[in-house]
Amino acid sequence: MHPLEACLLLRKIPQIGAIRAQQLVVLCGSPQAVFSTDPTELVAQEMASIEEHGWRCLIWGTPDYPPLLTLCSDVPLLLLARGEWPPNHPRIISVVGTRRPTDYGKRMCQQLIEALAPYNSLLVSGFAYGVDILAQTYAAQLGLATVDCMAQGLDRIYPAKHQKHLAAILAHGGLVSEFLPSDPFERTNFLRRNRIIAGLAHATVVIESGKWGGSMITAGYAHQYNREVFALPGPMDAEKSQGCLHLIEQQLAQVIGRPETIAHSLGWKTTAEKQSIKSPPALREDQKTVYTYVAQHPQVSLDALALGLKQSVSQTAALLMELELLDCVQSLPGKRHRVC
């Protein structure tokens, strides 16, 4: 096939625009190669690269896939993971913010991570400059597990300056990405990465942000996924406070009044506090199971509850209704629940 013929044919194919056509040409090597390349050869190359690096494949619909992500409608079919981290951790927090935090932002970030430490939280971030890498560093220093969501294939580290943090990350957690080594590294990757940051966690925390930017997009995804959002308030005339103040003003985020606000609002309990939880003796066994799970996971959504108990949504909803009538469980906005 002549290169001109291949270009004209690519233009005629529905749903293939200029950007996608260029990506196909880069992937295959030339316009005519797009129509002559065996797709199985490309797949074999990707599989060989994955096996060579020893990355884990998290496939949607399998037990290894992060359960909170399965509740989101736009998640990737495949995630690649490097390192070890528990995808079904019961207390996951995403922390995002400006790339240039103030001294106040840095100080509050450290205090918030320290407040989460007694709950053995899993911290998710984006490996970016500023708040992201600060939160990850503080968490690693406290021995907390961390997951960094990458906007490129796991074969490269960006920003390159953060290579020095890689050993600490892998010692306490790992990296995750939906991008393959052959995928182009584009600005839009960061937007796609942000939905993973929000979807992996029970709640997202924004520590200083302008009114526009990646942190606000991540908070928007978290709100869309019916996850809790927390925002750190700051001076009304400070540029880096505008995003957080907007989230609070629009009632899209809870105010972080003190470092302990997040854990208390989510109803998280330390090991000692959990051991004191007791089920009401008058409940049936199936009711006790639901009651105990809600007590240990306050503000849990109906979908997450059904997923955690491995039973149907309709069955779970019926048991919740029975517990509400018994004044054992209380419904909250956003189809969430907590014990009375």
What does this structure look like?
The protein is 43% helix and 15% strand. It has 15 helices and twelve strands. The strands form two sheets. A nine-stranded mixed sheet has the order 1-2-6-5-4-3-7-8-9, sandwiched between helices. The radius of gyration is 22 Å and the shape is globular. The protein folds into three domains: 3-37, no CATH class; 56-266, Rossmann fold (3-Layer(aba) Sandwich), CATH 3.40.50.450; 277-339, Winged helix-like DNA-binding domain superfamily/Winged helix DNA-binding domain (Arc Repressor Mutant, subunit A), CATH 1.10.10. It has 340 residues and is of the alpha/beta class. The N and C termini lie far apart (71 Å).
Rg of Cα set: 22 Å
Low-confidence sequence ranges: none
Could you give the order of the helices and strands? Answer: HHHHEEEHEHEHEHEHEHEHHHEHHEE
How do the strands line up in the largest sheet? 1-2-6-5-4-3-7-8-9
Q: How many individual helices? A: 15
**CATH C-level of the largest domain:** Alpha Beta
Provide the β-strand percentage band: 15-25%
Shape: globular
**What do we call the CATH topology of the largest domain?**
Rossmann fold
What kind of sheet is the major sheet? 9 strands, mixed
Q: What structural class do helix, strand and pairing data support?
A: alpha/beta
Question: Helical amount among residues, as a percent range?
Answer: 40-55%
Overall average residue pLDDT: 89
CATH-level-2 architecture of the largest domain? 3-Layer(aba) Sandwich
First CA to last CA: what distance? 71 Å
Number of domains: 3
> How many beta-strand runs?
12
